[in-house]
Structures are given as C-alpha cells and as structure tokens.
Amino acid sequence: MLRTKRAAVTASNPQAKQLYADALSAFLQKHPGHSRAREVYDRIQLEFANELSSLGRYQDAIRFYRAVLTSDPKNDDAKRGLNAAMDRLAVTRGKLLQIEVGMSQRDVARVLGRPIPGWTAIKDRPAATIEAWYYRTTDGGVAAIYFREGRVFAAEEKSDARVNL
Predict the structure, then answer these.
(1) Most buried among 4, 87, 129, 141, using CB within 10 Å?
(2) End-to-end CA distance of the chain
(3) Is residue 163 in a domain?
(4) CA of residue 58 relative to chain centroid, distance
(5) Do 57 and 97 belong together in one domain?
C-alpha cells in the first residue's frame, strides 16, 4: 500500500490515485476500525467527488459525497459538495434565465452543469448541426437548451413556454 501511496502522491495520474484508493479500501475491509486509514480514504473520496462535480458528473459525485457522509456524518465539505451537486441536478427558472443566445456549451455548463448522461440529442441537418441538452427542473418538468454549431440559439421549458433570451 505504501508503494501505491507514493505513486499517487507524486503523480497527478488518475490511475495511480485509483490504485491507492483501491488499496485503502481493501485495507479498510480487513481493518474497519482503523481511524487514520478511514480519514485518508474519506479525503480521497471527497477529492474524487469534487473532481466529478467539476466535470458536471453530479450524480456520480453525489454517490461519493454520500459515502463520505456515511462514515463521517459531520463532514462539512461533503455536506456542501452534496448540496451543490444536488442543486445542479435540477434547474431553476432563475438559472435557465441566465442562459443567453450565443453562449457556448462551456458557458452553459458553468451555469447549469453538463446534462445527465443520455439527456442530450444531436441532429445533423444540411445547414447546421443542432444539439439539445435536457435538464430536470425544480418543478418536475424538463428544460431544453438548443445549440447550433456549439452556440445557444434557444431554450425552453416542458410547458413549451419559450424563455426570453
């Protein structure tokens, strides 16, 4: 385990970090009462969750935040991360109104996060490629952001009411 720790600390290589996390997990299965190993493992899980969240993979991040909170219910970083990730899963009307015509996909991802895997659609048309990103709304509906050649040209909510862009 120390060899994998050295590799994980000296390299910013995700595979090395994963090997170390796997070694810690195996160690904790054999020694569940080892508080220092649990603390280090929770910190690594929190780092993974934060990284996933920064990539817009909020559902994956939520699983890691919840795992940390299972072993440490008072972990404020995990609570904040969980709340932020949960907030990103559902789009409020206020967030949707922040989207403007001409914004790039990266700009939209900063405001709304990336859509849940499988919640996108691409249509190749003769004149342009149209991409749609779909999000759950806080009222239980669906919001859609439409891109033409990577730039926003429209947004709408489930009720088909256009949002002023």
Answers:
(1) 4
(2) 54
(3) no
(4) 3
(5) no
Q: Which residue's entry shows tokens 């904790």?
A: 28
Is residue 57 helix, strand or coil?
coil
The number of CA neighbours under 13 Å toward the Cβ of 132 is 14
Q: Which of 91, 151, 95, 97 is nearest to 116 (CA)?
A: 91
Domain that holds residue 56: 2-89
How many residues in total does the chain contain? 165
- 10 Å Cβ neighbour count for 143? 24
Partner residues linked to 129 by β-bridges: 124
Taking only the tens place, the pLDDT of each residue in 108-130 is 998 988 888 789 999 998 989 99
- Tell whether 57 is covered by a domain: yes
Please say whether the beta carbons of 27 and 34 come within 8 A: yes
The CA distance from 33 to 74, in Å, is 18
Is this model's pTM higher than 0.85 or not? no
